[in-house]
User: Fold these one by one.
Assistant:
Number 1:
Amino acid sequence: MIKEDILSMIYDDVGPAIRSGSMSGKDRFWIRDGNMVWMAGVDSSLLSVNVNDIVSAGMDAAAGSDDKLIRLAVSILGKNPRINTLLLNRSTYSETVSLTGETLKPYVDDIAQIIGIDIKNLPVDETVKISGLFRSRSAVTIAGEGILCAGTSMDDAVAVAIIAGKAAFIHIQGSYIGPLSFIGRIESAFMRFIYRRKYSKQAAKAGRK
Amino acid sequence: MKNNIEKVRISVCEAGIRLSAEGLVARTWGNISIRIDERTMAVTPSGIMYGDIRPEHIAVMDIITGRWECAVKPSGERKLHAAIYRARPEAGAVIHTHQLNASVCAAARVNVEVNDRDAARILCTGKIFCGGYGLPGTGKLTTETVKAVNGSMCALMANHGAVCLGSDIDEAFTVSRILENVCGTFIAGKFSIVTGTGDLSDKNVCSQYLQTHLKR
């Protein structure tokens, strides 16, 4: 993987989501590349990121970083082989939810399908618990930071980030119009199973072309 | 009303790209159909990104029997589309969206008052109803949604999103935009009552929410 590939993923996949308000320029990313992990500098804006902002580090070296989020990202990538990309969604709604400690529920079916039965809210140093949650979910809220979203590719992770942002939006805006209902655990798990099966078939077909 | 099938298939593909571009859905969610004639409709496939859908992916389906022809399986909500065409012979297009403000109202399962006279005229209703919950693709979801649409041009679908119809695809898109505005106005009104502020900017909504939450 070269820096230009990463830049084009950010421009093509992340850019439109930022411009639509689903994500934010303050978002961060981590991409697995063999035993390396690619990321942008802490102060880089994903709207204006350039090749000089993108850095790589060995997974082992990154695991010893001073930055807690980098350590968490490396731990998740290390324990979940199906995850290749992580995005931290820091939209206004995602950040707000991260400050309240609340768990987000599957308020609509796309949340159940693409993320899972809920989006739990945990402190960044709960590395083991968070890594474990990613086995059955595609997003976890990191207290005070935003919603961490996982995908097999950047395109996948962006889709998760858009839906996670939508979950935070519904949670907050919906609180003003009455109690929100949500899809139960069993139905959510069922919907996710069906969706993943359908999506993996489609991905396999696309791969054969 | 007999349209050329190939022309309709192309129109459905174009509408899919528009659905995604206008932010009404993400990824493969939502679905679109256009009536071909009294008996048949063309409907989007299941699980293919809108940008990748080609005319040969668009199934032609009998509205009465539910039989369809296509190499690709049509949307799981095809029965909902067919039921709407059966109930509303004047409907020429149906779209199922996951638009944001409508999704908020659908998650709260509220019926939404339409206070703007022009909007009420276009939506053919003074109140947008939210249909009862059902699993995607089930008869229950179809029955509840058709009941909620009744004589209007749209309905909310509990914990799903919204369905909008029109005499043609352009009108269905217009209905979805108006529905989004009406739901946004409804949320803004409630927000204003609860917080005493009319500023519905994301920053203010989140700041008010945080203040309320921290007081608990």
Number 2:
Amino acid sequence: MTAISVPAPSKRKFEWMSFGLGVWCVVVYIFLFIPIGFLIAHSLTKSSAFEVWAGPPSFRWYPKVFENKQLMSAIRASFKAALGSTIVATIIGSMAGITLARRKGRWTKPFIVLVLLVLVTPEIVDAIGLLRWFVASELKLNLANTWFSLRSGLLPLVIGQSLFSTAVVILIVRARMEGLDESLEQAAEDLYATPRRAFMQITLPLVSPAVVASALLAFTLSLDNTIVSNFVNTTGNSTLPAYVFGKTKSVLKPDIAAASTMMLGVTLLALVLVVVVLKRSGDSSSDIAATITGQ
Amino acid sequence: MTAVSTPANSPMHARRRLRLPRSILAFPAWFWFLAFFAAPLGLVVYNSFGSKVPQSVGNVSMASPSLGRYREALTGTFFTVFETTLKIAVIGTVLCLVIGFPVAYWLATRASARLKGVMLGLVIIPFWTNFLIRTLSWTIVLSPEGYLSHQLQSWGILGGPIHLLATKTAVQIGVVYNYLPLMIFPLFVALDRLDPSLREASKDLGATPGRTFLQVTGPLAMPGIIAGLLLVYIPLAGDYLTAKILGKAQGNMAGAFIASQVIDAQNLPAGAAMAVILILLILGTILAVGGIGLAIAKMSQIRRSVYVDTGDSI
């Protein structure tokens, strides 16, 4: 643009800085991918110990994942519970997120404080509290072995995993709604659309990229959940992370690495979907980064 | 019921009665959080004033509520664990900032639009990898019989096998690794929103790159830096898994210690009191750092205004 030349010495200095920054980035990216690389490599080991590599690479541990009944049932439980908690989190989180942006009032501040508290509280504290709460409410209300029991099947997992996810969905959907021009909805109402119709035909389509992205994020967060799941799960309903965590106390086998590598594939698929959804709705990479990390 | 024939039954009143609160759509989330977050947390706080019923499996007696568990927590082993936790958390957060800032800066200022997307995606991948699994992967990397250990020995860099597992160093590496992306994202977002012309203007006005960084880029990136510090420090201080897996008994952090009180010692009141102290510690550090930050900001503002005043008077 400008024809005024920049003094040469300062320009050279800046190139050195770019070079240094570039080298630093390469080092940090290697650091970020070291464990993942090791994990994938060790899913292909021939040895029968988790930490020991023995070549040549073989796929012998992959079929073993499908033969391990406990591991398979843990994977199934993981997906079912994550699906349940994603449905809960997406529905109640989106509703709350939209309301936070459009129906401000005295309730907004305490509600946001509550959401932030959910995000801030150490997971181990949630886990202990939730387990005690489930047991106590069951004893007090005499719910054990009734259909309403909170401690049956996957229900405790769904509840436990949905808390953090719901908070994340609320923040993402709210951020998107704040960025949307309210005049579109007002225009719909001026044109005699009922509030319901304005919501269904204007608000919902506009906010849907954020809802889809946050749902996928909720799903991976739920799959990822280890501590709460490990505390509240009921017998026979252990999730994959809870199962693996239990195994860390004894001896790990490479089938864990194989199963983890496959789970990594699922997570990456979800990530790619999020990026595609957000890209199609016209977000820049900066916006996408902000959304994915819940800002 | 009794008002059947009163004006309350007129259409207007019926409508008003039917009108729901404007925030009705947030009610399910309210209910969910109160029932499954606030209530359990309240139960933990409540139990922290009780005492363990001897020889029972985790029963709690609330017969004589007291602050005894807090006193025990602050005088016993847990105090040391607290110190370790605070140290690991502060060092870890600072390391994340020091390591992450250049990366975010490069991404925001040097990378082309296309490369930006790819490189950001590469930061997101480890972040989205299962937390337990990526922590567990470090046990492969740092294993004394592992590939890295053998290679470093054969290259003559190390005299013997790596002995990092079950040490505080391993926990420190693990937490920096686990929370680094949470530092890079907000820094990137803040730096990416900065108008490049501001840096150019500073340069054109004769500022050295260092001065531009300290007086233009740094202050403008402050919201991102603060967000990053909070996003890293909060979960790091409450970390349980990293300490449990990479530190074992050695790198005991508060989260892991609380869990062992509740699970192994079956002493819920003690664990609950420590949990309350941990939460207060996290909030306390944030408030303290925030307060110092505000004070510094105010002071530098005063100094700047003095500077400007003298400048005007010349």
